[in-house]
Each structure stands twice: as structure tokens, then as C-alpha cells.
Give the backbone structure.
Amino acid sequence: MSYGLRSFLPKNDMINILLLAVLIMVIFPLSMDIFRLNLVGKYLSYAFVALGLALCWGYGGILSLGQGVFFGLGGYCMAMFLKLEASSPENTAIQSTPGIPDFMDWNQLTALPWFWEPFHSLGFTMIAIIAVPVIFAFIVSVAMFKRRVGGVYFAIITQAIAAILTILIIGQQGYTGGVNGITDLRTLNGWDIRTDEAKYVLYFLCCTLLIGSVLLAQFVRKSKLGRLLVAMRDKEDRVRFSGYDVSNFKIFIFCLAAALSALGGAMFTLQVGFMSPSFVGIVPSIEMVIFCAVGGRLSLLGAVYGTLLVNWTKTVFSESFPELWLFGLGALFIGVVLAFPNGLAGVYSTYIEPRLSKWFKDLRSMRPPMASSTADTRS
Amino acid sequence: MFAEYTASELTSIFAMQGFAGLILFSVFVLMALGLAIIFGQMGVINMAHGEFMILGAYITYLTSNVFSEYAQPLFGGYFFVAMLLAFIATFALGALVEWAMIRHLYKRPLDTLLATWGLSLILQQLYRTVFGPREVGVTLPDWLMGSYPLSDMIEIPINGIFVMCITLVISVGVYLWMYRSRWGGQVRAVVQNREMAGAVGINTEKVDRITFALGCGIAGVAGSAFTMVGSTGPTSGQLYIVDTFLVVVFGGASSLLGTIASAFTISQAQSTMEFFLSGSMAKVLTLLVVVGILMLRPQGLFALKIRH
């Protein structure tokens, strides 16, 4: 048992994950007010997507430019449940059709569409948050990977899917809330999600889920599956000739990444209080890729730190110099790709880690002489 | 959905929408030709292609302003000067970008996507700072205004015909350059086997640079032609980039003929459906069909038969 634990969670990784947990669950809540903390919670919900991308792009070599689709699907499923609860017949008595969401009323709909009906149930919603994006990812990836479409073509097609879904959501205003998205969400099963207390609870829930997801991803990475993924990324044909069905592994990892993104989307909706197509389309999907790239595409924790860093910089810049932000983001893309293809994690492991370990070694080697000197005086 | 129209009305609807589709087709072809050269021949994904096009459009806008200010009598011919300037500027920028960025990334095609996306963000913000966030349009010279009546229900705008003529000339030019000139032969040789091409004395680095720059230059001309039919804003290029990539992939990435055929199919489908459905649903349906066909036939409509 202890051997199994050690092999999937070596000492170094365990310390690093613990450090992350301390940072987001102790240091951030103690040092920030609830407004800032809620903002960090929002960033952390993007970190789920970046984590999924690290698995699927960094390890599997599958670049998806449509992760926003899964983030959005998860978020919309959550938002549909919350919206239905917020538009009870008492709350919406002034509408011409009470009991349906306000935007449907504005678009002259008189009854709830059939696909909204099941979202009255919390249990169904919880399942749908993961199941809907995973089924969608499964269909897309089976169609693509079974026919050996990969690389650039896969990236372009996922991008087109992101475009299609955005246009569809914006176009079908009566069913989806259009460009404004689903707003004015109030309670989760009677519990008000807008109070400060609720925001704290949701923040810690988000952190716990994130750490859980990191552990899950770590497990996948260290398992035989993880090794096969790396082998596939580097020499797909050899893995195929060794008798493995390459497409099944690709489908699995893509669906796992989709599930993680969807979880992030649901946490986003809960913490921010709305969901809109501006988190689904091409631009947010590519931004999510850059979170992962800045952190280091081969590092799970790097993905989390990268997300935090890029979003924090974005907030600071767009508060004080909104014009400069796009220049900065563009330069970040180019710089990361040209100069630091392994991102922050790469910088850490080539420049900082050797010095740190040398420093630790020095510390350790300093002790024995001291001990021997005391021994000398005693004798 | 056809029930409420008479047969003659339907004919003219299809003719008019077909013509609108032809204009969209011209813009697609001009953009896709540059992209097909860069993506199909070199394997580089240039997400900043739309921004190169918009650079051409802004240069046309500036030229038209300069002409109406200082050379009013020559205003009728400003467009040809603008097109040349647009080509030169985007060609130069393309060569610069290839030298500074792309040549380091030939081994990592997915990374070119991210790097050029960064470039496109920078260019967009640059346009916004220089030209302002609002869309600008050019004044058409008199001889491009108006329309040519074909029958009492069908009218064809002259600027549309002009854009189509430009498209035709450029497509023929690209074809001759790629398949009939010595340069084109070298480009195709480098694409098929880089090491061997180098071994027989082709300067592959120079070929890469000129090819990339030429693709960008064609995008600049596309932008110039685009001002004839639409107005230009800092993010106009981004609206077309995904469509254009789909056009190129759908046609079979390495076939110029396939690119033209798929641009025709996609633009005609979209503009004909636009009349009967809402604009957004027409686009969704078109894209869905294209993605669906690509899943069934990943190599595109016209694929070169080569062994890997």
C-alpha cells in the first residue's frame, strides 16, 4: 500500500501539492478581503481547465482550442438549475407567463422548453454538469481520433465547434439568454449564494475540488496510462505497432479534460453568479491555453500557478492600463512560445531548483562538521 | 419555407443571393489563397492572417484619404495604387515576422498557432490605438458606384463585379506563380522534401521567407478588396479567420483548386440559407455541415495522394 502511494505521489510532489493547498486555503483567505478572495476563486475555476489542458495537451499532445465549450456547458448546466430556482412563480409574478426565466418572457416564450425541464432537479443537474460535456467530448473525439485526425486539424475543428456553440447561444436568445447569458442567480436549494458567508464556503469548496482534481491528474500522470500518453505524443506509430489502440487513450484523456473543465465552469457560475457566451467562444478558449502554457504545459501545478499569475496580471493591468493589456498578453504568448516553451515550471526546474537543492545540500553538509566540532571539544 | 414565394420570385432570390454569395466567395478565396500557401505548403498556422488582411484594408483607407486630399483628379484610380501599397506593406511585415518568429518554430506547428495568436492580439490593439475602435469605410470612386440591371428584378452591384475580377486575376496569378514559374517549383520542392531540396542547391530559408511573405501579401490585397464591399474595424479580421481556416481544411490543405472549390461551396451555402433562415442559424448550419463532412473525410475534398 505504501509502495503504491509512494509511486504515484513521490515526496517532492507531495510537498509541492501541500504548499499549493496551504497557499490557496490558508494564506489567501487570511490576507485578502472577500471581494479579492472571490476574484481568486474565479481564477481557480479557470485552473480546472488549465489542469485538463496540461493532461491532454502537455502529456497527450492533443491541443484543443475548444475547452471553453466544456467550461461553458458545465457552467450553463449549473446556471440553468439556479435560474429555474430564481424564477419561481412568486418571484416572477409580474411577467406575462410567471414561472419561466425572465429572458424567455422577454422573447415571447410561453412555456419552458423541454430541455430545461429536467434542470428543476438538483440531482439531475449535478450529473448533467459532468455528463453533458463528457458525452459531447466523447462524440467529437470518437469521430476524430478513430479516423486518426490529430494535431493541427483537431485544433482547428475544436475551434470551429467553439465558434458554432457561441453563435448558437447568442442566436437562440429565447432559450439561452443570448449575449447577456443567464444572469441574476440567487439561491442553491434555498441557500443564498450571494452572501459573504456563502462566498467563503464556495471558495473553500472550489479549493478542495481543485486539490482533488490535481491529485486525480497526478494519479493519471503516474499510472501506466500516463506513460502511454507521453509515448503516444512522442511516437504515435510505435505505440500503435506495439499493439495498443491509440485512439481509445486519446478519447479518454480528452473526455477527462472536458470533465475537469466542466467542473470549473460549474464552480465559476456558483462563485461569479452568472454565465454568458463570452466564456465559451474562441478567444476565451485560446486564453485558457495560454494559462496552461505560461505555467508549463508539462506541469500540473504549473497550470494552476500559471492561471493565477496570468489572471492576476490581467486584473492589475486592465484596472490601471486597459490599453496595454492586449499588448502584454500578446507579448506573453510570443515570449512563452519562443523563449520558455516549458513555461514557469521549466524556468523553475532549470534555474531555481538546482540552486535550491544545492542550498539544501549545503545546509545538510554544514551540520556534520558542527556536530564533530562539538564532539571534539567534549573529548 | 419555399411555399410563400412564386417560381419567378424564387429564381431571382436565388440569383441575388447567389451573387451576394459570389462576393463572399471572392473575399474567402483571397483570404484563403494566402492561408493555403502558408498553411498548406509550409504547415504554419497563421492566426494573424486576418490582421494582415486588415492592415491592407487600413492602408487602402489611408491611400483614399491622401488621394481625396491632395490628388482629387486622380481619385478614380487610387484603388490600384492602394492595392500595390497594401501588398508591399504586408509583404514586408510578413517577411519580418517570418524572420523574427516563424523560422524558429517550423518544428513545432502547434506553437506557431499560439505565437501568431499573440501577434494578432498585438496588431489588433495597435490598430485600435492608431485608427480608433470605430469601423472606417472608404469612399468609392464614381465608376464603382451603382449597379447594373440584369432584368427588372435582378440588379448586380458594380463594386461586386470589380472585386470578383480582382479575385480572378490574383487566383490566376497565384496559379501561374506556383505551378509555372521556377520559384513555385522550388517552393513545392521544399514542401515535399526539405533535405533533398537543400541538397540540390535550393536556398530553403529564403524560399520559406518569400513564401510566407507572399501569403501575407495576398492577404493584404484581400484586405484592399474587402474595403470595396465592407467597412473595416480593428477586429474585423478575427471574424473571418476561423471560416477561412475551415475553407482551407475543407478544400484539402495542399490543393489550391480545392481551396477555391470549398470557398465556393461554403459561401454559396451560407448566403443562400441566410435569406430563408436568420443569419446566425445559416452560419451555424454551414459550419456544422463542414465540420461533419470533415469528420467523415478528414483529408478534405481534394487531397493530394502522397505516402507519409
